[in-house]
Amino acid sequence: MKFETIDLFGAPFEHVETYVYYDGRRTFAMRSLGLPDLYYIVNTVDEDEENDTLITLAVAVGSERFRAVRSGVVPFRDAFTGASSGALYRVDWTWNESDERIASIVQIDAISLPDSWLPTPTARLSMRTDTVERYEPSDLVRLSEAQSRTVFAIEVEREGARITEFPSRNGGELQVAVDGAIVALSREHIGTRKSGIARELRSSVLQLRAASFVLVMAVDAGDAMLEPIEVTSTVFAELNSFIDAVSTGDRTKVLGELRRHSPTTRNRLRDILRPLASAGSGLALSAAVSGTREIVRAAAPPVSISAAVSMIEDVEPAVSFVDIDRGVLTGLVLRTKRFEIFDSASGTPYKGYMSDDALSVANGLTVGDESFVVAKIRVSVAFTNDDNDASGVKYTLEELRPSKPDTGRNLSE
Prior knowledge:
This protein is an alpha+beta fold. The chain has helices at residues 63-71, 76-81, 138-147, 168-190, 229-248, 251-259, 263-279, 302-313, 356-362, and strands spanning 13-21, 25-32, 38-48, 53-62, 88-95, 101-107, 151-156, 202-209, 213-220, 283-288, 296-300, 318-333, 338-343, 348-354, 372-381, 393-402. It has three domains: 3-117, no CATH class; 138-313, no CATH class; 318-402, CATH 2.40.50. The strands form three sheets. It has a six-stranded antiparallel beta sheet. 34% of the residues are buried.
């Protein structure tokens, strides 16, 4: 049966792919050679062996509709029942006297289709399908040269997805996290230098691509006239180093990589992984640093991403204690168990929460410049930190007792 040359709108056609094959193509797709956005989905619905007749349905669809049916977003049945007016055809194939198959084509309405000719309501194709322009890594170099700045791509995917899509919430969190990591790493590298360059790098989203889903982003140099390439190169080298460590699934390497950075940067790097793990996604970062004409890439699979998140969040805080002999109780809220103490010896203020033992003592104390205390404070330094305190340090007042300013003694005595 030569479907590619039958008298349908858009002929001639080229075969695209076959979905069911049994003694020939039974269900398949073809595309117009003259109208590349016009597809026909063809399905064999009945065969009369006595009369040697084969009945098929052919429905014309646009490229977007074809991709939706192909991926399973639209049920296969709906491709026919939801056909546009004038887009559905019945094609009967019979033998002629020359022993050739001849097509008889009749335009029909979807409402007239017998139920026995239709796929079941749950039948779907389920094929990975690009629904936006496909990503080509070489585009990064082209964009970088055209814009004279660093351009990078983040490849992600949604677990089980068959089309180009990624959850908006996860995608938004990822963009914020990547921008935050770039800012944190650039601040680490720039430090306190006054070199006239921007104090930090930021990023912007340029476009979306498919493979399966790609965010193409670029570096913004802020108020600097030119992008500080030495900073950008360092930032992306550090990002790639972290992703490479994650890809190994080795706890020692992942945590060792993070320990090279400040708590703030650790938080931002961890934040990149969280939305990916939530969506069951892996990560590939490709960057074309401005002026290099090269693409540097690092990638980690979904299982390594999820494992790294668990590794980071399972790290216990580092705990130490501070003994205060000459403290001043400057703040106290019994209802919320909050305290503030100023260490007169070191000139250091401390604030945080109280233990139940400390609370019972504090209940009888006053607050002020004459409220002298001896205290033991538990210092907990988080590996990463979800609180607003950028340092990740938490103070807990473990022990407390009133004291006179000239007789304060260590609690251990």
